[in-house]
Amino acid sequence: MKPKKDITIYDIAEKLKLSSATVSRALQNHPAINKKTKEKVQAAALTLGYRHNTFASSLRKQQTHTIGVVVHELKSSFITSVLAGIEKITSEAGYDLIIAHSSESFKKEAANALNLFHKRVDGLIASLSFDTTGLEHFKPFQEKGIPIVFFDRVEENSESTKVVIDNYKCGYEATSHLISQGCKRIVLVTADLKRNVYKRRYMGYKDALFDNDIPFIENHVLIKDLSEQGGMEAAKQILKMKPRPDGVFVTNDFSAAVCMQTLKENGMKVPEDIAIVGFNNDAIGKIVEPQLTTIDYPGVDMGTIAARHLIDHLKGVASIENTSTIVIHSDLIIRKSSMRK
């Protein structure tokens, strides 16, 4: 079937015997047009199937009223909560979102960034993939003065605006809590230490051991992808260790839950034989038995703050260059999985 031609403001003007300028202003809710005329124009536009040409309007104004978001995955509850925070602020400010995910690939992340640049987004919010090194692929945005806010996984030494939690403090507190419960052989299950979040948590873990006169053991640090498979693999390695560890800090709740389940299936009691702490405060931590001690990672707050900072800059309320790093508060939530005392 042959598609119908697009309805224009001239078609509406002809139908209502009004000037095209009056129709245009009525559709933009201009205060100079009276309420009755606006209602007639908007009703006619709906009846005729008129669509506003956002693209043409954007070209004239040099703004698209869209924000690009690049994330490293979409299936985690943390990322979902961050996106909820971003969407709340951007929708209130009249901006649409274009969301792209890298699937933990630098190559795909770079392609996503270029695609969003060509789509002329007004600003960008991004979290880096596992294997991203450097920020060269974001240079076109910087050269055009398009603001970028990075969150969670960031390049710590860059001058870009970053929204993070104190991952070092969180790693230190999680490990110190296990030590306070009598644990002396504590395993850390984490991801690639090239990424800032995992490196900082590792440093916090290591310093907590040192400050409590507990020796650091290299093979007690298990680098995994923090998936279901990674949690199972970590548990199987723990079961083979001699002497067997009495505490484990997993820097992801889902992987921690899988690790805990695998240990229990192999005869270990939690927390009596081994105490467990996760990270993120995902919903799964309240479902597993025993409930999982974890670090609260306030994703909604992170998304809200990143988006508000970007929108304020776009509206000329604040300068993005004046803020390098924003640190969001996070807490240790103690539940039964680590309570040996």
From TrEMBL:
Keywords: DNA-binding, Transcription, Transcription regulation
Pfam families xrefs: LacI, Peripla_BP_1
Name listed for the protein in its UniProt record: LacI family transcriptional regulator
Superkingdom per UniProt: Bacteria
CDD domains per record: HTH_LacI, PBP1_LacI_sugar_binding-like
Record's keyword annotation contains Endoplasmic reticulum: no
Record's keyword annotation contains Transcription regulation: yes
Species this chain originates from: Terrimonas ginsenosidimutans
Residue stretches making up the HTH lacI-type domain: 7-61
Source organism phylogeny: Bacteria, Pseudomonadati, Bacteroidota, Chitinophagia, Chitinophagales
Gene3D superfamilies tied to this protein: 3.40.50.2300, lambda repressor-like DNA-binding domains
